[in-house]
Automatic annotation (TrEMBL):
A Gene Ontology cellular-component term: plasma membrane
Keywords in alphabetical order: Cell membrane, Electron transport, Heme, Iron, Membrane, Metal-binding, Transmembrane, Transmembrane helix, Transport
Gene: cydB
Spans through the membrane: 6-36, 82-102, 114-137, 157-182, 194-213, 219-239, 251-270, 298-321
InterPro entries from the UniProt entry: Cyt-d_oxidase_su2
GO molecular function: electron transfer activity; metal ion binding; oxidoreductase activity, acting on diphenols and related substances as donors, oxygen as acceptor
The name this protein goes by in its record: Cytochrome d ubiquinol oxidase subunit II
Leader peptide range in chain numbering: none
Membrane topology recorded in Swiss-Prot or TrEMBL: Multi-pass membrane protein
Major site of localization recorded for this protein: membrane
Superkingdom in the source lineage: Bacteria
NCBIfam families: cydB (TIGR00203)
Length: 336
């Protein structure tokens, strides 16, 4: 295996980690306006992800940095062709991060409601647009012979990519609801489980449509296997929402569904990193988009040294904040 192939796998792993972890906190962010009945319940949901959401975003930063260093041509073409959707995602993530920090800075209902809306839309928009972006990456875009994107923003909003965006939105919302069941207790936990059961039906249908479409247009024997694993894990997680208990298994299975869905997309893509819909000869591949072997070699040693430290630290964070919370754990509730 060549270093460029290794780094394609490494970038895929980083995106898998990002969607697994950030997926549930995007879902919880959406649920703050869907599941929570009042401000106290919104605080319960926010507190389930408050200690970890910023750590989850490290995976995105690392994936972006690794792409820039390992595949500079891929990075350049992505950011020139996907400039507007990526800008919207970036702004949404910034506003969302500010909202987490600032919503409690002033004792004003109007102030908190405004920041709560920022959390909702800052979670909703990336949950959709990441699906749109990755569907377009797999489908291919209009790249000319210089590997420049010559299409328009509206070309990115094709039917396949929109189905991809709705799939990630529902998948992350289901993942977030399952996480809420795992991390809360009391009435809000019961309602989260009921909501997960309802959302799960739509998620299964749309995810199946998207995976079948991907398989028909871009698939292979390997992607057929990974897509089936993703579908079975999603169905199993949904089935388990219909009975109480086994919250950890339910969450793990919804995570497995995300993992293998993303694996399906990357396996469908390889050896391309950004196909051209104009001429296959214009496509970016792991070979023509990669950095020099020396650069990839240095990156590999850096990753070997620092990646275990990052994983240990993030694992420790989740362990420390593993306790369930509920309405009665919110100080404002106790004050009443």
């Amino acid at each position: 295996m060549h270093l460029q192939d290794l780094w394609f796998i490494a970038i895929a792993v980083l995106w898998i980690g990002y969607f697994f972890l950030e997926g549930f906190d995007f879902g919880v962010g959406v649920l703050t306006r869907v599941l929570a009945k009042d401000e106290t319940e919104r605080r319960v949901l926010i507190n389930t992800i408050a200690p970890v959401w910023d750590g989850n975003e490290v995976w995105l930063l690392t994936a972006g940095g690794a792409t820039f260093a390992a595949f500079p041509e891929w990075y350049a073409s992505l950011f020139s062709g996907f400039y507007l959707p990526l800008l919207i995602i970036l702004v949404a993530l910034i506003v969302r991060g500010v909202a987490f920090e600032y919503r409690g800075k002033r004792d004003s209902k109007r102030w908190r409601d405004g920041w709560d809306l920022a959390i909702f839309f800052g979670s909703l928009l990336p949950a959709i647009l990441w699906g749109v972006a990755f569907a377009n990456i797999v489908r291919g875009v209009a790249l000319d012979g210089r590997h420049l994107y010559v299409g328009s923003f509206w070309d990115l909003l094709n039917v396949y990519s929109l189905v991809g965006g709705l799939t990630t939105l529902l998948l992350f919302t289901f993942h977030g609801a399952v996480f809420a069941v795992l991390k809360t207790h009391g009435d809000i936990r019961d309602r989260a489980r009921a909501l997960a059961a309802r959302v799960g039906v739509a998620t299964i249908v749309l995810a199946a449509l998207f995976l079948i479409w991907t398989q028909v247009e871009h698939g292979s024997v390997a992607t057929a296997i990974t897509a089936v694993v993703a579908a079975l894990a999603l169905v199993a997680s949904w089935v388990m929402t219909r009975a109480d208990g086994r919250d950890g298994w339910r969450f793990a299975l919804s995570g497995v569904a995300i993992v293998f869905a993303v694996v399906t997309l990357f396996v469908s893509l390889y050896p391309n990193v950004l196909p051209s819909t104009i001429d296959p000869a214009n496509s970016l591949t792991v070979d023509n988009a990669s950095a020099t072997p020396k650069t990839l070699g240095i990156m590999t040693w850096v990753a070997v040294v620092f990646l275990p430290l990052v994983l240990l630290y993030q694992g420790w964070t989740y362990w420390v904040f593993r306790k369930r919370i509920g309405v009665r754990d919110i100080p404002a509730y106790q004050a009443h």
